[in-house]
Automatic annotation (TrEMBL):
Protein name: Uncharacterized protein
Keyword Nucleus found: no
Domain of life per record: Eukaryota
SUPFAM superfamilies: Magnesium transport protein CorA, transmembrane region
Entry keyword Thylakoid: no
Membrane topology category: Multi-pass membrane protein
Amino acid sequence: MEVYRQVDGQLPFLREPIDGERFLAAPPQTGTWVVFTEFNFFEKRTQLRESMTTQWKYPAMLWHKSYSDSNGYAGSARHEETIVADTSWFHLLIKQLKKGLPTKTWYYYVYEWYEMSFYIYAVPHGATVTFCMDTPLQFGKDLVHTLNARNQPMPKNKLAFFQSAILGELLKMYDHSVWTIRDVVRDLEKERDLSGATRQKHLDFVQMHDLARHIIHTCEIIAVACDSITELLAGHGVDNGGRCKCLLGATDTIRAACPHNEIAFTLGLLRNLGRRAEALSARLKNEINLGFNLVVQHDSASMKTIAVVTLAFLPATFVSTIFSMSFFSLSFDDVTGRQEWNVSNSFWIYWVLAVPLTILTLLCWTYGQRTEGFRLMPTFRSKYLKP
């Protein structure tokens, strides 16, 4: 567990050498805190879970496996008891593909799941604690750097501020995830030239469908993330148009700096990333369909070759059938007693008939193919080559 603290709203956030279990026993009275931990940290610590539920107002239902394994959720609440506290919780997923195409050592695409949970506990005019669970190491570094890079004082609504800061960092991860997939899809598109013919001798449809599976997951988790962020905004009185209602009567400067507006802007960018992911799915389907058509075209050409070879031997077979193979005979030598093959003196008749018939048949087939191509050319020009 890593704990960072900002004292009296003064930058920067500094790491606190503090015992995790003692810190979680009860919420602090003052200060702004950011805690990086793992969800499994609470799995075998029943007392800590009870403390989080009673002291920190963490929803007890979120400890259940069905919530930790879900593809996303979000919620917020205000607890008006001895101490008034605002809380917010959300769970988001990101699937990150490793760059590059699969290799011989590993057949499928390499990827990693980030299943992150966040909980914010904020007391008006008191302490604010943000829990980031199961986040990657780089996320924690970037979040602390972003918080320390601010030149503006901490806004009064710290809960919304930390929501905005976290979602801003998550947006970068979603963007990296989608663009990594885009690079992989683009590499597949570059495997063919402008004529549409693939440079690969063998298209691996299994790998392409494996990539399609990852894109489907990405589209799903981005859509769920958009719904979850919408729930967060709805809990703060933000309408469908992204207009914040918590600062009615405030000046334009204060309204522009409202964290809810930043969250709404992040939501819009995330929706755009979702559209890009859907476009990548369509582009990959296009490549799969093209590859399938190329394979079918190749198989059709192979069958045509077999048909032409069969056609070449058909006239000779027909002639030999007519003559019943009477050009050859098996006889015994009276002197040696051995069997010998005898070829008729009229064997030339077979070649005189078979060779011209074979040539004539192939010429007729070639003429038919050319005639069909010339017949389709005007239709192609009128349809696709309009001035």
